[in-house]
Known about the structure:
Blueprint lengths: L1 H20 L12 H6 L5 H4 L14 H8 L7 H11 L20 H7 L5 H4 L18 H10 L13 H4 L9 H4 L2
Helix pairs in contact: 4-5
Amino acid sequence: MKWLAVCAGVVVALLTWGFWWVEPAVKQPIEYPHKTHVEKLKLACTSCHQRAEKDAVAGRPPTALCLACHSGGETESDEVKKIRAFGEKGEEIPWKRVWRLPPHVFFPHGTHVVVAKLPCQTCHGAMETLDRPPARPLRTLTMNDCIGCHEQWKWPEATKEGRPGPVSVAGGRRIATDCNACHR
């Protein structure tokens, strides 16, 4: 009888581990083709994810931003009709989150996009090649990925205006690998 309880415990542990560590597939309300918007329209990631340059999170595009291009009747695809339907109701498109960092990790998009000039693909993968939204993250990041990038990156020695750069201000120490910078 004890072996049955042990087996049941192992099964429950494995199922629980799988539930917490495997990201469930996500189905977006709009089949947004990143490839079309990047290749044909020459849009940058920050054209739609406008908060990526200023905030900690990149944010999801508001319906009004989509309607700025798709409000007319020139495109009658089913996906554009869905966008217009959300707009007519005054609703935001209920985009679902695909990338999720653990709650104790702080990743300021603005710092990485503007200061470090890191391409979005470094963390998110080749989104610009997709004809539809990914069901799961294209890349799975580990702490080693972040540390490796931080250790390679160099602070500028001086600003364009000739003022001392962050290295001089910080006394020459590398603050990019400080645990408290990312873990809060």
